[in-house]
Specification:
By secondary structure, the chain is mostly helical. It has one domain: Orthogonal Bundle (TerB-like), CATH 1.10.3680. It is 63% helix and 0% strand. The chain has ten helices and no strands. Helix 1 crosses helix 5 and helix 4 packs across helix 8. The two termini are 29 Å apart.
């Protein structure tokens, strides 16, 4: 697993709430599974043909990290950081969560510097959306951003709405994701 994949996995695992037990199976697996479930039957057209996924290692779930490449994981991270910063600051709890996730993932100095640079200058919704090459990636990126925050401010809700629109994630899929997270 790459550093970006480790960071996404660790950040999702540090979330509190009803889905934290699911994250114990793998943070990336949770993101991929939630996105797949949210997209189910929402597409107006069949998904574009994709290259066959590599065979999963023994014991892997169908939603494991093998479906998320380094570039996509980095885009997920950028979306998670931007979502965290949309209200203008990283509070003490959010900062502790980031630090704990980095420590848990064993992230080296290069990864920490990358994250600090991203915190200093977060990506825009448009830049994040450029990282999605298909509806499945778009849904996974959106799911990662949504898992990064509890949208309890107007800015956070607007960010998620704008991100879903920029990624072209169907409204029905975002509603399904919210339903899953509320369960």
């Amino acid at each position: 697993m790459s550093e970006a994949q480790h960071m996404v996995d660790a950040l999702v695992r540090t979330r509190r709430g009803g889905f934290s037990a699911q994250a114990a199976l793998g943070g990336l697996a949770l993101v991929v599974g939630l996105a797949a479930k949210a997209l189910k039957d929402t597409a107006d057209k069949p998904p574009a043909a994709a290259a066959p996924a590599p065979a999963a290692p023994a014991g892997a779930t169908p939603f494991d990290h093998i479906q998320v490449g380094e570039d996509e994981a980095r885009t997920m991270l950028r979306a998670m950081v931007a979502a965290t910063l949309v209200d203008g600051l990283v509070d003490e709890g959010e900062r502790r969560r980031l630090d704990d996730a980095l420590a848990a993932a064993g992230i080296a100095d290069d990864g920490r510097r990358w994250l600090e640079a991203e915190l200093a200058d977060p990506a825009t919704v448009e830049t994040i959306a450029e990282g999605a090459n298909n509806p499945e990636q778009a849904a996974r990126i959106y799911a990662a951003a949504r898992l990064a925050i509890d949208p309890d401010t107007l800015q956070e809700r607007k960010f998620l709405k704008d991100l879903a629109e920029a990624l072209d994630v169907p409204d029905e899929a975002t509603l399904r994701l919210e339903t899953e997270l509320a369960a």
